[in-house]
TrEMBL record:
Residues 41-386 form the Schlafen group 3-like DNA/RNA helicase domain. This is DNA replication initiation protein. It comes from Novacetimonas cocois. Pfam families: SLFN-g3_helicase (PF09848). SUPFAM superfamilies: P-loop containing nucleoside triphosphate hydrolases.
């Protein structure tokens, strides 16, 4: 079996980038040179899922570390103390694996945000440049259970660095305790010199624009006409088991094809297997295996599991089979998607509602964000099955009329 779309290869610095991301890498390096003696400065990288944000930030980090560690390469940045942060256990595995193949990067360059903040505070130090991938996963409130005793990850990281380079996408926020939106980010940065750059070209989903338009519409509670038949393989299923069989067949051909689901089925971290059941389909949730070197999406054995949004956020697959669970419903009268947060099983996502002005609306947005993440994983194909009978019928009817 050939793994044609390894995330390690995708994020490996030194790849030939197209003009837009390559220009942004150069811009980031110039920004760091210009602000290395500033008190604080922030550069924000925005863009939808699949626009190349992670490859840009890792490529820029590799260039900064080369300048820091190789004498004569860049006198302004030579000897600087720089760190790459990501609040995602599967993604940090990926970055550390990548660092093994590059002479100017070290595994210790990549840290979790809380580890960084606590370490810098303990040593009474601060870094020169901090890169933050998936900044929308940073905590926006205190989390004493995980040993973060400040009020906001990003605020503390900026305090403990001269320059912060951050990747931010408000449509990938997944928890109350890391709730961000555009207004909150703008408020935090209002008194700090900062620049914002937006990537627009879609690199992950190799499809005509109507596919991304359909996904965006669905995540805004609208069902648009299905994308036209094209090379990108977009299918609707009435049977989750049939979808799984087709995902297995594609995995045998291409590798990196996986089943995914909204967090609508019970899952407890107790060492036991927990299953998703839909009609004839029964498959276990992804297993927590922190000791594994490879992240979940890269391991061949996970074809026998169903991944969650926490497992695959930030990763590419070739084909994704997405189960829309009971929290995702459809109202035939209004012809709109209806989100049912009471059927969403990720209770931990909704802890801390007292700090939000409109927690019910945020709950629904978090579920819609999770659907956006799941539907934008596949580079070659997206298969969809809906648990809700009304939604399944609506998608089936549209598929039968598809051109």
């Amino acid at each position: 079996m050939q793994q044609t779309n390894s995330s390690e290869l995708k994020l490996l610095p030194g790849r030939n980038l197209s003009a837009e991301p390559d220009d942004l890498v150069s811009t980031i390096v110039r920004f760091c040179c210009d602000h290395i003696h500033s008190e604080h400065a922030v550069l924000v990288i925005r863009g939808d899922a699949g626009t190349g944000k992670s490859i840009v930030i890792n490529s820029a980090f590799e260039k900064i570390q080369e300048a820091s560690r190789l004498s004569g390469s860049n006198d302004v940045l030579h000897g600087t103390h720089n760190v790459f942060l990501v609040n995602h256990p599967e993604m940090i595995k990926l970055y550390r694996n990548i660092s093994e193949s590059l002479p100017t990067l070290r595994k210790k360059d990549y840290e979790r945000p809380t580890t960084f903040v606590n370490s810098m505070d303990r040593q009474h130090k601060r870094a020169d440049i901090v890169f933050i991938d998936e900044a929308h996963l940073l905590l926006s409130r205190r989390d004493s259970y995980n040993r973060f005793n400040h009020d906001n990850h990003l605020q503390e990281i900026i305090r403990l660095s001269r320059i912060a380079i951050i990747v931010f996408d408000s449509r990938q926020v997944l928890k109350f305790k890391s709730y961000w939106d555009d207004r909150r980010l703008e408020h935090l940065l209002r008194d700090i010199p900062h620049e914002v750059f937006t990537l627009t070209t879609q690199f992950r989903v190799r499809a005509n624009p109507d596919v991304m338009k359909w996904i965006s519409g669905f995540c805004s509670r609208r069902i648009l006409p299905l994308p036209a038949q094209q090379e990108f393989d977009f299918r609707i299923y009435d049977d989750a088991l049939e979808m799984y069989h087709d995902i297995c067949a594609m995995n045998a051909r291409f590798g990196l094809c996986r089943m995914l689901s909204t967090y609508d089925y019970p899952y407890v971290l107790n060492g036991q297997d927990h299953f998703i059941e839909e009609g004839r389909f029964r498959l276990r949730w992804d297993r927590a295996r922190p000791e594994q070197r490879l992240p979940w999406a890269e391991r061949e054995d996970t074809i026998d599991e169903v991944g969650s949004v926490y497992t695959v956020q930030g990763f590419d697959l070739n084909y994704a089979g997405v189960i829309l669970g009971p929290s995702v419903t459809y109202d035939p009268r209004t012809q709109r998607i209806v989100i049912k947060p009471d059927r969403y099983e990720d209770g931990a996502a909704f802890v801390g509602r007292d700090a939000l002005d409109n927690p019910e609306a945020v709950q629904e947005q978090i579920i819609l964000n999770s659907i956006n993440v799941l539907m934008t994983r596949g580079t070659m194909g997206l298969y969809i099955y809906a648990s809700n009978a009304d939604l399944r019928k609506k998608l089936h009817d549209m598929a039968s009329r598809r051109t």
